[in-house]
Amino acid sequence: MTSNLQGGPPAELIFGEWYPAGRSAGLKKGKTTTALLCGVPLLLGRKNDGTVFAMRDLCPHRGIPLSAGWFDGNEVQCKYHGWKFEPCSGQCTEIPSLTGLDILQPTKIYATSYPCEERDGTCWVYLPEAGAGRRTAELPPVPEVPKFSAKFRSAHLTADLPCNVDHGIIGLMDPAHGPFVHQAWWWRSRASIHEKTKHFEPIPGGFRISSHAPSANSAPYKLLGVYGEPITTTIDFVLPNRRYETIRAGEKWFASLTTVTPVTASTCRIDVYAAWNVFYNVPLVKTIATFFGARFVRQDQETMIEQAQGLRFRPALMLIDDADQPAKWYFALKQARLTGIGEHPLKGPVELHWRS
What we know:
The radius of gyration is 23 Å and the shape is globular. The chain has an eight-stranded antiparallel beta sheet. The protein has a four-stranded antiparallel beta sheet with strand order 2-3-4-9, with no helix packed on it. It is an alpha+beta fold. Helix content is 17%, strand content 32%.
């Protein structure tokens, strides 16, 4: 689903992090594609040897998009003057206009390239802080979904959101919208609203909803009861944009990584990658899960599109306790990350209460 609404107020973006730029399946050997990530135009591709790469989609010579040129499976060539670049390093390998009288060494020129890795069928790109240079010596681990068995099934869902990343993230972690936005016979209804108590604890760069029994008013969780094992779920939020959820029922498990990624300062994209071994041998489970999962994500997307209509008028907004406390923590964590000043907003375990 798309919207003709323009993005709302811009958000300040966090760099020095891995962000999902696209699906690996879309990167064929010898082919390239483009993406926009944190307002940075990217040229993504896969070399003939299978290596994926990410370059800034701008030639350092005159600024024409490199995607307008050619890729032979090993080098990217600019359409304007034929400059060639090794795409993983960005190093220039040839400037056709040079003569034997020129002293310029092409190999000392670099187009901007970024670290690029594949995990869980996703192409992750590391966008460094300004002034960090072509490469950062030590990078944080590439995010991936935790897995607890060798055999599992997986699925991926995505949706574009016409709001900035802050609104996307606090919507992602908001516990009170479920009975209203996600009303369905297979999920929950307004009639199922009841008081909940959750225990939170600080973790590096985020916070965790401690291991607990999942919501009794959600039909998918009830299905796990067929295994006759205690069911527990743990949810982590980690800067800049990641929500991990793990559900365990003995040896059976479901895990997901949901990210809200800034496309520009005013728009974002939600990606959900899930893996599981529950009902592994039941036919059509992946098809059914993907169908209902897509409906779930679409409900969030539709709500964000409607919210964007109001955000165009720059209204004053409010956050309330306790349901909005995770959003407050997110803003405090982000501000501390951006400024380098401030402590973790959670000093220790906290108990929150709300109705949903």
